[in-house]
Every structure is written in structure tokens, then in C-alpha cells.
Amino acid sequence: MKNSIRGEIHTVDGALIIIAEINKYQLWRLITAEIMDDMGANNFTFEAWVNNEADKTALFDNLKLYVDKWGGWIDWHQCTHDEPTAQPCVIEEEYRR
Ligand SMILES: [Zn+2]
Q1: What CATH number is given for 2-96 in this structure?
Q2: Ligand 1 mean position to 93 CA, how many Å?
Q3: Residues in the chain with pLDDT < 50?
């Protein structure tokens, strides 16, 4: 089981800064994308899977700074998508500004 952090941050230029922060941790997998929201603004979205809870807690706390800076949200959940039989993902905590 991994710990997944997902997010959508209201920035495009800040994406590289956020990715650099995420890459400080040992990742099982990282998905990033740029999407356009309902208001026509471009946002940076990601899902990052880390291997343990300590990394999840540290990364989640650090990512709050970027949510505060640019707006958007992050959440985390324990994810079984690395296992043969995956369970539905249940969000544990969300941080939104
Ligand atoms: Zn999941």
C-alpha cells in the first residue's frame, strides 16, 4: 500500500517548483498534468504516491504552502493501486484555500 497525495493548484508557472518539492521524496509514481478549469484558468494537477506515512505527512504539510500561495486544494489517501486487488480510494484529509 502507498500513500497518495493529489492536488490541483491554481498556477502553471509554479508547477516546476511544486514538482521539485515532490521529487525530494522517494516516489512510487508521479502523474502531473495541466488542465483548464471552469473559469478558463490553467491549473497544475498531480498525483504523487510515496512509500510511507512519514513522507506523506511531511510532503502534505509542505505542499500546503503552495496551496496558500496560489490557491487550490490537496488531499491524501492510503492507496492500494500498487496491489493486485485494488480497493476504492477513500480520501482521508483535504486542504483547500
Ligand atoms: Zn488511490
Answers
A1: 3.30.70.260
A2: 13
A3: none
